[in-house]
Amino acid sequence: MPPTTMTEKSASLTWTRKHLLGLQELSAAEITQILDQAAEFKRLAAAGETKLKALSGTVVANLFFEPSTRTRTSFSLAAKRLSADTVDFTASGSSVSKGETFVDTARNIEAMGVDLVVVRHSSSGAPHLLAKHLRAGVVNAGDGTHEHPTQGLLDIFTIREHRGDLSGLTVTLVGDILHSRVARSNIWGLKKLGARVIVCGPSTLIPSHVTELGVEVSNSLDEVLSETDVINLLRIQFERQRSAYFPSIREYAHFFGMNGDRIRKAKKDVLILAPGPINRGVELTPEVADGKHSVILDQVTNGLLVRMSVLYLLRQRQLAMGDAP
Ligand code: CP
């Protein structure tokens, strides 16, 4: 019998990690625990319980040193849905421009009584650095080209919601695998839950040792379409590219863009995911982005629930261990 209230659910928790830095270090059981807790929040929301008291008295700081729409907004709303107080910091307009360091910035904000810090930064490993210097729990909201664990979790949650068990499913990640932290978090999470993962893109955008992560490589989207259950269309990360990785956007879209012709050649029930922001006409056409196979806005909805789950589990552990700042 599934738990029916937050109190009963809390009693069954055994979350042990202080921080959420990546999916690489999580077990399948830990990933499933986050997803199950998110599903519980979804069930409560459907029953009209959209404002919960679980994080009352908790302060969550969102520290964003890179732009964001979905992640920053949904972490902020997730904290509010759980009755936490929130501090939303963006580097632009802050004292970072006067030379204050990343760690000093975070320590000063933590000194205002912050319990959980959500951080996005262009440097891979930035959340790990904060985890060494702060007493607060740290959540990685995207670090350089390394990981974006809550994006991976919300992608997997969305697939699980539509398809159930991931084992036996083939998921193809298309595009800029080289620079994509979303790709890495998806690969770690999907492989741990038993999915087959194909990475597909121009050879210049596929990391040389990626098969060591247990994935298959394809340089032809057309060749893998018929065997793919889920296609996740990754954004070309122009801001992280230091040279030209393909001749033109038009050529990229021709070979790797998802369009109406390719949807018609894919499995009849193929799911189309994209982490956003999407570039209409590049990674996918409007016909695909807004079509019946697209679950792109479901991903956004589920992102709120997954982030509620992460904040809730980390805070429960803090309170249980007595190591809240
Ligand atoms: N998918 C994602 O991380 O979107 P934002 O950059 O808008 O947060």
In DSSP terms (H or I, runs of 4 or more residues), the helix count works out at: 12
Strand order of the largest sheet: 7-6-5-8-9
The percentage of residues in β strands lies in 5-15%
- Rg, nearest Å: 20 Å
**Poorly predicted runs of 5 or more residues:** 1-11
Shape: globular
Structure classification: alpha/beta
Number of DSSP-assigned strands: 9
Bound molecules: phosphoric acid mono(formamide)ester
Q: What is the string of helix and strand elements?
A: HHEHEHEHEHEHEEHEHHEHH
Distance between the termini: 36 Å
Outline the biggest β-sheet.
5 strands, parallel
Helix percent band: 25-40%
Mean pLDDT: 93
Summarize the structure.
The protein is α/β, with parallel strands linked by helices and 325 residues long. It has twelve helices and nine strands. Helix 6 crosses helix 7 and helix 6 packs across helix 12.
Question: How would you characterize this protein structure?
Answer:
- The chain is of the alpha/beta class.
- It has helices at 6-11, 28-46, 70-81, 102-110, 126-133, 149-163, 181-192, 221-224, 249-256, 260-265, 286-289, 296-321; strands at residues 59-64, 85-90, 116-121, 137-143, 170-174, 196-200, 216-218, 230-233, 271-273.
- Strand 1 (59-64), helix 3 (70-81) and strand 2 form a beta-alpha-beta unit.
- The longest helix has 26 residues, at 296-321.
- The two termini are 36 Å apart.
- It binds phosphoric acid mono(formamide)ester.
- Phosphoric acid mono(formamide)ester binds next to helix 3.
- Phosphoric acid mono(formamide)ester is lined by residues 68-71, 142, 151, 275-277.
